[in-house]
Amino acid sequence: PASTTSPPAAAAAAAAQPPYNSVSPGPYVPTHLPHEHAGQHPAPHPSSALNKRAASVSGTPPPTTGNGLMAAHQHTMTAPPLGGAPMLQTGSNSDSLKEAKRLADRNQELRRTKEELTAQLEEAKQRAGDLSAQLEEARRLQAETEGKLADHQAMASAQIGALESKLEAEAKAHQQTESALAKAKAHTMEERAEAERLRNEVWQLRTDIGGLRNQVVVMEQQRAELEARAAADAAAHASLQADLDAARATTAAHTEALLASSRTISERERERNKATAELAVLHTQVEALKAQAADMASTERDLRLQLQVQEGTSQERLDLLSLRAMENASAKHKANCQIDDMVKALAALKHGVIASLSTEVGCADSAPSGAAGAPDAHAGAFTPTPHTNDT
Question: Which residues form a coiled coil (predicted)?
């Protein structure tokens, strides 16, 4: 079926109208139907507003005969062919009825389509109004948003400036903190080195103290040995003194017998005086040795006190104390040698006195019988006792 409007007029009307689904404040007129297919353009209904609008635009009045589709069909059927000759009507009544029924069905379908399109048009108009309101609201919101955005941009610029200044201050503070941290690290390394040096010194002092304690133990042992030897020497001296006292008693008992021999009195007196002088010298030496031993004990006590007080001193004091200990040991050794010499001298003197007394006893055998019995009774007291220095 052909359209009632001419192609140039329809093209002008289509160009003048907005496209489908577009939003405009005026009345909405679609340029084509959504259900159209290629090559099929159904004629609009003559009573519709779309036909009237299209006819007013194109200048052609709408058809006034009943059904526009039937009129278009009749126009098409009775129109002359392209060659100009009139077309003859052919076909039977059944074909006409079928064609009429088909056209009626088509008309009914087009009415339903028209109703659907009318509903869609109303819905589209309503949506266009809603979209216009939404557009106005969107424009208003856009204006408000642009104002708020400008305010926010100003506030953000101010905040960015403040943050930049704050970041610069924090960067300066961070640099200062890093420099202070570097100084603190350097100071910490120095303190660690100093602590390590002090730890090494403490370890060295502990080692020195251990050495001094070992030396004190050795000196204690030497002192104990010296005390034992001094006790042994004192016991030997006491034994010698007892023997000397016994010899003196025996000498006093035999004085009368010795006086009987006038030939040896002066010689015996000289020998006795000599022995007495030697004994006095020996006693003096023994006393001097005792005093020296007491001085050495006092010196040892002083050294022990100095060792207790000066445990934390340096290696020089330790060497000095070691030297003094060696000197004391040397002095003790010399004193022991002197004591041994004195003991040997006392033993020799004892043997000489005993030999002299034995000579006197031999001389007294020729004396009277009243004086001769006394030496025989005490002859066993003059037996010499060998002296050993094992203790």
Answer: 181-229
In tens, the pLDDT along 177-200 reads 888 888 888 888 998 898 998 989
Residue of 265, 248, 251, 260 lying closest to 369 (CA atoms): 260
Dist. CA 391–CA 334, nearest whole Å: 17
Q: DSSP state, 367?
A: S
In the predicted model, is pLDDT for residue 115 greater than 90? yes
Cβ–Cβ under 8 Å, residues 384 and 346: no
Q: Write the DSSP string, 292-328.
A: HHHHHHHHHHHHHHHHHHTTT--HHHHHHHHHHHHHH
Buried b (16+ CB within 10 A) or exposed e, 34-46: eeeeeeeebbbbb
What are φ and ψ of residue 365, in 5° steps?
-65, -25
Domains of the chain: total: 1
Residue 311 sits in which domain range?
216-382
DSSP annotation of 380 = G
211 is a domain residue: no
Residue 366 lies in a domain: yes
3-state secondary structure of 260: coil
